[in-house]
Amino acid sequence: GDREAGEMGLAAVPGRQAAFRQGLATAVQYAKAVGCPRIHLMAGRVPLGADRAAVAGEMETTFIENLRYAAGLLAQEDMIGLVEPINNRITDPRYYLNTPHQAAAILEKVGRPNLKLQLDLFHCQIMDGNLSRNLETYFPLIGHIQIAQVPGRHEPDSPGELNFPYIFELLESLGYTGYVGCEYAPKGDTLEGLGWLRTYWESRGLQHGGTSKAAE
C-alpha cells in the first residue's frame, strides 16, 4: 500500500483489492529472485474515521477473498502465505488483525493449506500472554515465528517479561523446524546485540552457527 498515506498492508482493506493483487504480484517476483518461499500478506488498517466494529464484517470478507486469491497464486510458485497478528494496544491501534485467535478463525474460513500463521511472540504476549498454551494450540498453523522482548522490543536477553530459553526449548519439544525471525530493535550495535545467541548456542553445547561439538 501507500505508506505515506498511512497504509500498512491491503489484504483486508475494502476497495483496495486491485492494488493488493498488484502488490502481491510484485512481492512474488522479489521472493522468487531471492529464493524466499514465504510472503507475509499484511492485513492493513481499519480506515481512518471508521468504527472498528462497524467495518469488521466487511474487512473480514475482503480479507478472506484476498487470501483465497493469494493462496491460488502462491500455490503455482510453491510458496506459503503468512498472516501476522499485530497488537493494537501499543504498536498499531488501527491494525485489523490483532490476535492469533482471530487469525486462526480467518485461516479456517479461507481453508487453504499453503496459508499459515506468522506468530510474533512480542505481539502475542501483549495481546494475550499464555504463550505456552497458545504455541501448543496454534502450532499446526504456524509457518513462521518472530521474537522480541516485551515491552521494550529489544534483544531476547534484555530485561522483560519473556523467558526465551524456556520458549526455545518449548519450540524444540513441539518439533518446530522453521526459522525464528529476530524482529527486535537492538539496544546498541547489531553484532554485539547477537551475544545472546552465542550464549544460547553454548548453553546447548553448540558451536557458533548452531553446529554440535560432536559433529565438529
Rg to the nearest angstrom?
Answer: 18 Å
Strand order across the largest sheet? 1-2-3-4-5
The CATH first-level class comes to Alpha Beta
Strand content: 5-15%
CATH architecture: Alpha-Beta Barrel
In N-to-C order, the SSE pattern is: HEHEHEHHEHEH
Biggest sheet details:
5 strands, parallel
Q: Give the integer mean of the pLDDT values.
A: 95
How is this fold's topology laid out?
Layout: H1 17-34, E1 38-40, H2 52-76, E2 80-83, H3 100-110, E3 115-120, H4 121-127, H5 131-138, E4 142-147, H6 164-174, E5 180-182, H7 195-203
Parallel strand pairs: 1-2, 2-3, 3-4, 4-5
What does this structure look like?
- GO terms for molecular function: hydroxypyruvate isomerase activity.
- Keywords: Isomerase.
- The longest helix is centred in the N-terminal third of the chain and has 25 residues, at 52-76.
- The protein is built from 7 helices and 5 strands.
- Helix 2 (52-76) links the parallel strand 1 and strand 2.
- With 216 residues, it is α/β, with parallel strands linked by helices.
- It has a single domain (16-21, 37-203), classed as Alpha-Beta Barrel (TIM Barrel).
- The chain starts with 16 loop residues before the first helix and ends in a 13-residue tail after the last helix.
- It has a 5-stranded parallel β-sheet.
- The mean pLDDT is 95.
